[in-house]
Amino acid sequence: MRNALFLLLLLAVAAVPGSVYPQRSADPNGVKEFFDREPEFARVLDGLQLFDVYTSAWFSAIYILLFVSLVGCVVPRTKVHFDAMRAKPVKTPTNLKRMTIHAELAGDPELAIQKAQKVLKSMRYKTQVQGNSVSSEKGYLKETGNLVFHFSLVGVLIAVGVGGGLSFNGQRVLVEGETFVNNLASYDSFSPGPLFDESKLLPFSLTLDDFSVLYDLNNRANIGQPIDFIATVTTTAGEETKTDEIRVNYPLAAPGVNVFLTGNGFAPVITVRDGNGDVAYSGPVIFLPQDSNMTSLGVIKAPDANPDQIGIIAFFYPTAGELDNGAYTSIYPDPLSPLLTMNVYKGDLGLDSGIPRNVYALDTASLETLASREGPNDPIMLTVGESKDLPGGLGSVSFDGLLRFASIDFAYNPGGVWVLLFSLLALGSLTLSLLWPRRRVWVRVNQDGVIEMAALAKGDDQRLEQATTEIRKRLEKEIA
Question: Which of 37, 54, 83 is the last residue of a domain?
Fold first, then answer.
């Protein structure tokens, strides 16, 4: 038991890094951002498996040791308890006056033993007549509840382990109008458990029809704070098509997975034409929010542009406001007066080198700056529907429309229900073990013909005196 308690404490401590650092299974974008901010430190943490805490070798070792310790603790106790339940009540002690409760009863000694057994049996005590005494016990449910509690903990560990092994977690960013199809190729990131089987991916599709945010407009101190996020989606499974809503803390139950809403932002629709007038890029671009007013950062890469590859770092302001230094910021998170500003670069974007590149970042070290606040030309500024030429005859860019995106998390864990059931069983059995006391009561007629009664509790029992007083009253009434 001491080992189990120590390992349980150690498991709790080992879980702390999982809430301090982003986890690949739940927040893969957070892990990428951590690597971008602190690449050297991130590699050290990754070597220690601190981005995969709950599937790490050291966390699993503690988990398995705790499981073994609990089994080694509970199994022998179960046998002892089973033998105790089958055994006869303990022999009546020679000196009852040493017990916690001791009293002498008034009544007929010749009826005392027979009536005492009758009274104790009616109160659900296990009894045995031992010569001139009756020995009785009650409260085996206390130990039963204790054992069931520990078996439930073992069940929780098994459910977590098996469920984690069979589980998977995937993420996808969907722009309004886009459709997700449930296969491995459709996920932006995917984290399977070690026992994952691809056949668990049941066929269905999910289309993000609309995404809306409700803001607090009534409380002056809280104006502009979001109070609800609503993703309206259409799911198709086989021949069945239905429309649902996904909200924070209100996931959607899709075939084989639960679908959670984890993030959102804007996706301006942008078209880039190269120097020859051909479309080098066209479509919505995911802009990552940078503050509570949804000032957002996006990157556009046009590697097929001619004569030069084009790279753009853009800032989106849903409700633009100009600062004293001439820079812009967003003063409200809803798109009341949307504005795009763009820094433009040309040169080799490095997409043909075979080295993976972050789609949300642009390495400008080897690129020529064409437009920026410190460059030869001012940043390009666009409102919705506006188009402007790029410097140096590089082409043109247009801001065609504004959509929203939603970050969707798909999670499957078959152990979740079992964890809940075992947790409820553990709670119920623990309550039973705390409320059901273990007691022993003896009634004896001594050599002087005096009727003695004594009681003893195993552990703390605040109601022992009250219970024995009730036994005494009933017995004295029977033998009066």
Answer: 83
The least confident of 88-92, 206-210, 352-356 is 352-356
Query: Please, which residues have CB within 8 angstroms of residue 91's CB and are 6 or more apart in sequence?
Result: 130, 135
Number of domains in the chain: 3
Asked if residue 121 and residue 29 are part of one domain, the reply reads no
The predicted-structure confidence for 316-352, as pLDDT tens digits, reads as follows 999 999 888 888 999 999 999 999 999 999 998 887 7
| pLDDT 10s digits, 185-241 | 999 888 888 888 888 899 999 999 999 999 888 877 777 788 899 999 999 998 899
Please indicate, yes or no, whether residues 77 and 93 belong to a single structural domain of this protein: no
Examine residue 176 and state whether it is found in any structural domain, yes or no: no
Give the model's confidence band at 356: pLDDT under 50 very low, under 70 low, under 90 confident, else very high.
low
- Looking up residue 458, the CATH number of its domain turns out to be 3.30.310.80
Find the domain containing 454 and state its range: 88-139+437-479
Q: How confident is the model at residue 396 (pLDDT cuts 50, 70, 90)?
A: very high
**25 in any annotated domain:** yes
Please tell me whether residues 361 and 471 are part of one structural domain: no
